[in-house]
Structures are given as structure tokens and as C-alpha cells.
Write a structure and sequence with these properties.
Layout (H helix, E strand, L loop, with lengths): L1 H4 L4 H40 L4 H24 L3 H11 L6 H30 L1
Amino acid sequence: MRGQELGVNTSTNTISHASTGKLLLYLKQPLLAATTIALSDLLALIIGVGSVPRTTLVLILFLEGGIGLIVGVIIALSSAPSIAKLGELTMGAAPWSRDSEKHAEKIGSKWMVASVILVAVAFLISAL
């Protein structure tokens, strides 16, 4: 009763908790990928150079983040209707379908989220 007096919709809390759970489930794979990439870069610098030059690590993370953003956009656009039609006419690829476009957008967005995390880590390291 108190929540209704304040104008709080209790059903919204359930939806926000469900969407928060979906968001965490969605971010799990990109966050794991970005962490793995950053740690493998750190390990490669330690093995290769013997120390961790901060500027080198930041530049590598920016480079990998930028490449990941470009790849994510390419993946997301690869199943756009115009691109699919071009591939169908020139290479005999499968015709465009809404399901394949949704799938490509989902995969591309995960690449982009992981890349944004890498760029954010690079900014964080450079600020320290």
C-alpha cells in the first residue's frame, strides 16, 4: 500500500530486476573476452619485454579495441538486406532472412561491447 501511495509501481521493480539479470547475462561473454584479451596482452608483454610498459599496453588495447569495433560493425552489417542481396548476386550466398540479420546483429554487438570494454580499460590504465 505504501508503494502505491508514493506512486511506485511494484511490477516495475520485477521488470527492472529481470532486465538487470538479462543485461548481466548478455555482458558475461563480452566481459570475459575483454578480460582474457587484456590479461593475455599483459602476459605477453611480461614474457616478451620482461616488464610492462604502460604506454605500450595502452596502445595495444586501443588497437585491439579499434579492430574489434570495426569487425563488430562489419559482422552486424554483413546481413543487412542490401549487403545480403549483393552477396547473393555476386557470390551465390544464401538469400536475406530476418533471422540471419538478427543473429548477425547480436554477434556484432557482442564484439562491439567487448571492444568498448577494452578501450575503457585502456583509458583507465592511461589515467592511472
